[in-house]
Design goal:
The chain is an alpha/beta fold and 221 residues long. It has five helices and eleven strands, in the order ββαβαβαββαβαββββ.
Length: 221
Amino acid sequence: EQALLRRPVSICQLDRGNGTYDILFQKKGTGTALLTCKKSGDRLDVLGPLGNGFDLNEKYQRIAVVGGGIGVFPLLFLLQESKAAYKNAYLGFRSADLIVLEKEFGRSATSLKIATDDGSYGTHGYITEILKKDLLSCHYDMIYACGPTVMLSTIARIADESGTQCQVSLEQRMGCGFGACLICACKTKIKSDAVDKDGQWHYSHVCKDGPVFNSKDVIFD
């Protein structure tokens, strides 16, 4: 048998009645290819839950979720669990053939906006541009974001410029899941023993300190 590292996978939906949950993942590489071969009744060795998730404090009554690509998966679960009165979803994909969970988000969100990079569906362009435009005329108590690092960096800047609180879930390769292997280290402003020589930033671990961070604490290079 091949020796493979564990894969970090987020929960997409939860069925408390049946005691089950759904996960979605993109088939990319040997590990996820093997997962696609699993059948009903097969066993999987799962370690979790790990790290720190999104803060769904009920004081956040107007929220926005912003997802890019496979980063939309955990945001559906977030919407379903949130008690917010107003929940707006912004989803970005490269093209129409990569869009997933549109109906599910449509049922769970107050409003749903979709953008594609190539303009094949929804608004042509980046979903971050739609968010930026909307923030000129509306207010959110909290923005929740998950997706590629470059997208999260843009969202963090937009949130900062508009004075909006923002939580980001970082996508990062992981080996162990509990901070031992150091594969998922990222630069943050959170104090730790791992610090650069000038004391300007520290190393945090996405697996145990995250994957969710306050956007103001993350240093996007």
